[in-house]
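fold-stage: in
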Amino acid sequence: MTAPEHSTEVCELASLALIRFTGTDARVFLHNQLTCDVEALTPETSTYGSYCTPKGRMLATFLLFRSGDDYFMQLTAALRELIQKRLSMFILRSKVKAMDATGEWVALGISGIGAAALARLISGTAPAAVHGVTHGKDAIVIRLPGERYELVVPADKAQSVKELLAHRAEVTEPQHWDWLDIRAGIPMITPATQEAFVPQMANLDLIGGVSFTKGCYPGQEIVARTHYRGTLKQRMYRASVPEGENPQPGDKLYAPQTGIQSCGMIVNAAPAPNGLVDVLAVMQIAAAEGGDVHLGAPEGPQLELQPLPYKVAAD
């Protein structure tokens, strides 16, 4: 069931996983591996970011936050094991441990008109600013774009918190949260789209997930070159496809400008409250400006571009 846009909703974010990084070198290690500014992260802030190959192609996108001296990377569960193993390969002599913390916590998403009040009910406090983090008695509360709050609750307290929320909000399926991410323009890299995009193609630079002032990290040279030389030819857009269609991450897009060659790819898709299916799609800027983009084949269903909460433009 997809909730109405103007109610208060809660759902369990069961498709997400957590990697915990501990140790005195965790901050420096992560800062040298990720696209975001880890050194600027405090226990009261969170950030989006990505992890890239040496060629600058994204292996994962994530939300990063702290609790004390520990760092938590939240990403799709389908990539948790792979990313944890890959990052662990580069720890070497650093005093860092990477471990699966998914079973220790339950992530709950609250959205709608009463989201802030519900967050305060559970935790006693709620962040005032987007990407703010508060640490309450029963939850870590993270404010996300689109008037949303995520509660990261210790597993032993999760059931009582869920029951309390269920009496005060409409319980929805995780697909509704996926749609809210799409509406907010927040991409989630999945196995189908690994190594398909440099961060700017998926608008990571527009949502605070890329720092252009930090030092080296895997792929940094290519990411920086794309930014400073203005060579970006693709960006991510939000669009709707007709009801009954079932777009999937990795599905190809087509436009008259490219003929039988693909002009882009679906990043994420979720049903919208209006009965259509909303997608985030990386496509050639020229194709998006032409407004005639089709799903799956040159004569496939046409995408209708929708607004994002931030301006999308070429570098």
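fold-stage: in (second)
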Amino acid sequence: MSNTTEKLHCLIIGSGPAGYTAAIYAARANMKPVLYTGKDPGGQLMITNDVENYPGYPKGIMGPEMMEEFRQQAARFGTDIRYEMVTKVDFSGPIHKAWTESGHELHAESVIIATGASAKWLGLESEKRLNSKGVSACAVCDGFFYRGMEVAVVGGGDTAAEEATYLSKLCPKVHLIVRRDQLRASKIMQERVLKTENIIVHWNTETQEILGENEVEGVRLLNNKTGEVSILPIKGFFVAIGHHPNTEIFLDWIDHDNVGYLKTIAGTSKTNIEGVFASGDAQDNVYRQAVTAAGTGCMAALDAERYLAEEGYI
């Protein structure tokens, strides 16, 4: 693509359920959306095997297949989908500027941010190899597949406590692996974990390796106080050490929390910048589900359409 300036009604940055849903609504409203997928087209669902909790798929669907259907639907209504990253933005004026990795300059009357968030991982080779084969970063998404089985959760904050509590209703034993000698979770979540009989907390413990060839069979643990190494037979391993929103390029312009999640005006997708809207996991650190991301993508497109109409752009 040449380094000319391109003028757009609606720029969507990011794909996944939020970006593609925003594109479907924006295209149907004749906003002529241009969507840049980013480095991971389809987002986190591309590393999710079975999706069974999204309405409309009674038999479940593979995450990548679902995202391909979302993409096709967005394309059907005329979304211009481009497989490139937006690497820089300038929201200082009424026309919002953005630049792609190839240096292409975009001038957009409205921008919908749908860059999502990425799970933090331990960085183990076995964790990567067994991802979606027993290793997961979402108990609400995948816990159902491990009902009746022994599982482990790693982490010490609210996310880990919530995941362990959720899994305790499905699994006979949930092993919570905590690196320190205390939980970082809120008091109420700590109490809930410690009162749940089938949650076994392993204090001062680190994960050395997840065991198994084609599926998780166990985990090797190191007690960092005693130096003792032990093997725990499990079928599911849930990493709950947090997420980081993919919002770095927006932080100089958009109000955000201390982690980097973008702030929106309650009940809307509007940010502090007129004409810039945030959707999906880039602004949601609570629910982080495909269906909620799609819902905020819809909101962003409708908010953007109203903005463009009010400003006389369309």
